[in-house]
Write a structure and sequence with these properties.
globular; Pept_tRNA_hydro_sf; cytoplasm; Rossmann fold; seven-stranded mixed beta sheet; about 200 residues; Peptidyl-tRNA hydrolase; alpha/beta; single chain
Length: about 200
Amino acid sequence: MASDTWLVAGLGNPGPGYAHNRHNVGQMVLDELAARVGGSFKAHKSRAQVLEGRLGVGGPRVVLAKPMTYMNLSGGPVASLAKFFGIEPDHVVAIHDEIDIPFNTIKLKIGGGEGGHNGLRDISKALATKDYYRVRVGVGRPPGRMDTADFVLRDFGTTEKKELPFLIGDAADAAELLIREGLLAAQQKFHGATSA
């Protein structure tokens, strides 16, 4: 398969109990991208839900993937799909929650550390490189002394839920812009910007 295909993985945990957790914001963004591409996710042997399509008419070809493993085992499905579709790491995008940036903020990067994010750590290990793209969706830091794991496994708060559709839309826009025009263009648009 041609290398112009992109693999976009939305990270999270499987099952309805986790669906609205902060940790699952990557999968929420994938649902938005799927609505734009058109079609529905189907089970794939790589232990992921997959949707193949194009971003817009004649746009880039994408494989949207939601790993059906727990977050800290995201690497296996991502690496399997990359191999299956012949996609190099420089055409892999991981969309994930990020506690180190404020809620309603989006940052993009390629490579670098995983910031204690076990899903990213597993992907880096499985791909044998850190040089893949990340769309980092800010979910804020835990209040007080709350444990980070408890915080990310909770649903968004009432006020956050009102802003969440805008944040998800912006994260989907950021992923699209990254794929269409490159990292710099996406960073210039979204870094320092907050959602409406």
